[in-house]
């Protein structure tokens, strides 16, 4: 893309891709870690990227959300850390070309930090530095730290990314997954935003929650900041049918949600768990 991402966000909203994990499952893949598909099913990963690009997404995110050393270690895959992350970016760039911005996607470790859990702050920072270093070596328009629920881990993640070097903009999104509208660790949208602003990131927002709570979170943030906002909600409520997880939200539901998000000031709108290329295409049509 010819125009730097942050510059484009000053003037318009762009549409990001939808889910990767639930799309891989829909393709019949049963993986111990979603990043494993980068090596074992690269054509499937590229095909999903291509579907989102065809749907109208202008920002595509690498299939590396769960590819940090801690998550890979739980799956017995830590020795493949560098190759899984490197391929995650290379597959993405092959599909995106000059047609879409590319984001290096990093998720949380799944561990609590000391004193509540086994991971120290320096250890967490090193986990994120190591992953970001591999991803950024392949080139990215944005680093996306998403689905965080604890303030201390988000701070460690941002520090690790910065230690990896580069001048790539950083976006951070919190998951407000509880019925109260707070994160699993009890963090409110206002508290999460205050930390994001203090960390000096470039884009802030919410993802991986029910549409109503995710929208409410970005609306609350919009009243408190002039930073570009990002929102990626789930496709409704997950339900088990015939042994498979399905989501209640239709593409039309995502389109209406996107209209409300953009009215609140959201500049990057995409989808999280359960969203598909059909949901993204509906968002694109709604915002056209």
Gross morphology is globular
Q: What percent of the residues sit in helical stretches (DSSP H or I)?
A: 40-55%
Per CATH, the class reads Alpha Beta
Please tell me the total number of domains: 1
Structural category: alpha/beta
- The SSE order reads HEHHHEHHEHEHEHEHEEEHEH
Assign the CATH superfamily. Answer: Homocysteine-binding-like domain
Largest sheet: 8 strands, parallel
Strand order across the biggest sheet? 1-10-7-6-5-4-3-2
How many extended strands?
Answer: 10
Radius of gyration based on Cα positions: 17 Å
Measured between the Cα atoms of the first and last residue, the distance is 19 Å
Q: DSSP strand (E) fraction?
A: 15-25%
Query: Could you list the spans in which at least 5 consecutive residues all have pLDDT below 50?
Result: none
Overview of this structure, please?
Helix 6 packs across helix 7 (121-137) and helix 10 runs parallel beside helix 11. The protein contains twelve helices and ten strands. With 288 residues, it is α/β, with parallel strands linked by helices.
What is the structure about, briefly put?
The chain has 288 residues and is an alpha/beta fold.
